[in-house]
Amino acid sequence: MADISLVLGGARSGKSARALSLAATPPHVFVATAEALDLEMEARIARHRAERGESWLVVEEPLDLADAVRAHAAEGTTLLIDCLTLWLSNVMHHGREPGAETARLIAAMELAPGRIVLVSNEIGMGLAPMNELGRAFRDEQGRLNQRIAAVAGHVEFVAAGLPLTLKGTPR
């Protein structure tokens, strides 16, 4: 099984920057789950590409993360998946069952060589969403984070750019 790290945090907490630092040594593969559905997201994706630099192989996979893990995980390589929250949104939007898709992802990671760093939002610390879809998403996100944290050897929570190790040895 891969050496799995999960980096959690809120929006603009510094979790992606922390994950990039954990995966800084090449060879590394960046698996992006975002889709450029509007001009603002296109600009955001372009900024993120520029921040990462040329040493990264970038794979855009908004839906089939298990397939991306199987295709790109390799001994001596770090696979950075950013982020599980957008992936879950895509899964739900396409009518796929989140629990089954999470099981597929975990099964792929259990067979993967190398290192995997995953980024996810911790969204359950605020107010309860006002509508059914928002509450369902919050609940699925919480279950996803718990399942990934259970198989990860290293879990961090990032707030204000500062990582707090929740599981494993500080890195």
Task: Describe this protein's structure.
With 171 residues, this protein is of the alpha/beta class. The chain has one domain: P-loop containing nucleotide triphosphate hydrolases (Rossmann fold), CATH 3.40.50.300. 43% of the residues lie in helices and 23% in strands. The protein contains 6 helices and 7 strands; from the N terminus they run E-H-E-H-E-H-E-H-H-E-H-E-E. Strands 3-2-4-5-1-6-7 form a 7-stranded mixed beta sheet, with helices on both faces. A hairpin with a 2-residue loop joins strand 6 and strand 7. Helix 3 runs parallel beside helix 5, helix 4 packs across helix 6 and helix 5 packs parallel to helix 6. The longest helix has 20 residues. The radius of gyration is 15 Å and the shape is globular.
Summary tags:
Rossmann fold
Bin the helical content: 40-55%
| Biggest sheet record | 7 strands, mixed
Strand content: 15-25%
Average per-residue pLDDT, rounded, comes to: 94
What structural category characterises the helix and strand content? alpha/beta
The CATH homologous superfamily is termed: P-loop containing nucleotide triphosphate hydrolases
Shape: globular
- Spatial order of strands in the largest sheet: 3-2-4-5-1-6-7
N-end to C-end Cα span: 19 Å
Radius of gyration: 15 Å
Low-confidence stretches: none
